[in-house]
Design brief:
By secondary structure, this protein is α+β, with helices and mostly antiparallel strands. It has a single domain, classed as Cytochrome P450 (Cytochrome p450, Orthogonal Bundle), CATH 1.10.630.10. The strands form 3 sheets. A 5-stranded mixed β-sheet has the order 1-2-8-5-3, sandwiched between helices. The protein has a 3-stranded antiparallel β-sheet with strand order 4-10-9. α12 crosses α13 and α18 packs across α20. The protein starts with 10 loop residues before the first helix and ends with a strand. Bound molecules: protoporphyrin IX containing FE. The site of protoporphyrin IX containing FE has 27 residues, from α11, α15, α16 and α20.
Length: 402
């Protein structure tokens, strides 16, 4: 087997994960990756089976990470561990069930629909400024501003602090996204998390004194009922700020790229804006922003005919599942009317993305705004540069002309 198939960070895998995962799936759907020291799943059925089996597969990333560190490192990374260990995405039941239940009602499709006019106006204001220039850098001038503004308003954090929060959030990302190009990534992540916690703590105290209608106040009310601790409230806010914008920003950028490379689909959407819902589902499937997520086997389990031993880690490659030809006919074709489209871009099982309805709404408004107002763009760079991460499909920038 060529060595590159075991190198999840090989430039080929980072630049074109879809071809890489096709090759891996053809070789072995459940593959032991010696270099990473865990299993890599590229078949749809296996990915879904593991994500739905939270009894046998744990999400407790911190518990497993701590076992890989020595005492000095554990001490060094304490600030980030203290927060990430309380993130919904990294905890198992019963704590997961308790916290998720408290958040669910705020993020249902019905509950988030109220933000649509606000999202539309953010998109329109940005495009009014951008349109006459006939060019833009999609990520920094458009894509991040939509979800970050929304999540801060939803939480009740002042919009004025947006740039600082963005910076701290990017620092946290160096840890979470396994950025191979940054040797100090854990220290940087600790700086980011400490700054964000220090920023959020007084906001939480303020809402305790005088509650409003925002999400922080709702979480503080749960603290009063002894359903949440202060540390859980702050960790949840950090997760929502971080998870609530990076992923959606990347989806919007990947979506613009996909449509720019398929101008006939851009024009189809422009001609028939009602296609926006299925178009966003297809963009999530075709080049979603979360490529993979990890689980740890609590006990021995057989997946796709392979025995996974207790304690072993499993990479569930969502982007590979989303292009599994056994589930998606012509998986490499972008078809904005694809139906059915049971993609797993938001995961599956008990950890399925809490923010999916909000992410969908934001992406729909952003992509609909762009296709309505602009002609199909040209990508104005000869090379695309992706962050070297296994988890996230994230362009460094995306300059376009239109
Ligand atoms: C396109 C945008 C997004 C994508 C592709 C995405 C993807 C995902 C995925 C794959 C998971 C499951 C991870 C796992 O099973 O290990 C997840 C969980 C989560 N996401 Fe998202 N996400 C997006 C946007 C958002 C937004 C906007 C928010 C918040 C407002 C959010 C908040 C969360 C939270 C809190 C969890 C943890 C849920 C749990 O563990 O129960 N996400 N997301």
């Amino acid at each position: 087997m060529p060595l590159v198939l075991d190198d999840l960070m090989a430039p080929e895998a980072i630049n074109d994960p879809h071809t890489y995962y096709h090759q891996l799936r053809e070789l072995e759907r459940v593959h032991w990756n010696e270099r990473w020291g865990g299993w890599v799943l590229t078949g749809y059925d296996d990915v879904v089976a593991v994500l739905r089996d939270s009894d046998r597969f744990s999400s407790d990333r911190m518990a497993y990470l701590e076992t890989e560190l020595n005492a000095e490192e554990r001490c060094l990374y304490q600030p980030i561990f203290a927060v990430l260990a309380k993130w919904l995405v990294f905890i198992d039941p019963p704590d997961h069930t308790r916290i998720r239940r408290l958040l669910n009602t705020r993020f249902t499709p019905r509950a988030v629909e109220q933000y649509r006019p606000r999202v539309r106006s953010i998109v329109n204001n940005l495009l009014t400024e951008i349109e006459p220039r006939r060019r833009m850098e999609v990520i920094h001038e458009f894509a991040y501003l939509v979800p970050l503004t929304v999540i801060l308003e939803l939480l009740g954090a002042p919009a004025l602090d947006r740039d600082l929060i963005k910076q701290w959030s990017e620092q946290i990302g160096t840890f979470f996204f396994l950025r191979a190009d940054e040797p100090r990534r854990r220290e940087i992540a600790c700086e980011g998390v400490t700054s964000l916690v220090n920023y959020l703590r007084p906001l939480v105290a303020q809402r305790r004194e005088s509650p409003t209608l925002d999400l922080i106040s709702a979480l503080v009310a749960c603290e009063d009922q002894q359903e949440l601790t202060e540390a859980e409230i702050i960790a949840t806010c950090v997760l929502l700020v971080f998870g609530g914008h990076e992923t959606t920003m990347n989806l919007i950028a990947n979506g613009v790229l996909a449509l720019a490379n398929h101008p006939e689909e851009w024009d189809r959407l422009k001609a028939d804006p009602k296609l926006i819902e299925s178009a966003v589902e297809e963009l999530l499937r075709y080049d979603g922003s979360v490529k993979a997520t990890v689980r740890w086997a609590r006990s021995e389990a057989v997946v796709g005919g392979k025995t996974i031993k207790a304690g072993q880690k499993v990479l569930c490659a969502l982007s590979a599942a989303n292009r599994d030809p056994e589930h998606f006919p012509e998986p490499d074709r972008l078809d904005i009317t694809r139906a059915p489209n049971p993609h797993v871009a938001f995961g599956q099982g008990i950890h399925i993305c809490l923010g999916a309805p909000l992410a969908r709404l934001e992406a729909q408004e952003a992509i609909a705004g762009l296709t309505r107002r602009l002609p199909a763009p040209r990508i104005s760079t000869p090379t695309l540069d992706y962050h070297p991460t296994v988890v996230s499909r994230a362009l460094r920038n995306l300059p376009i002309e239109f």
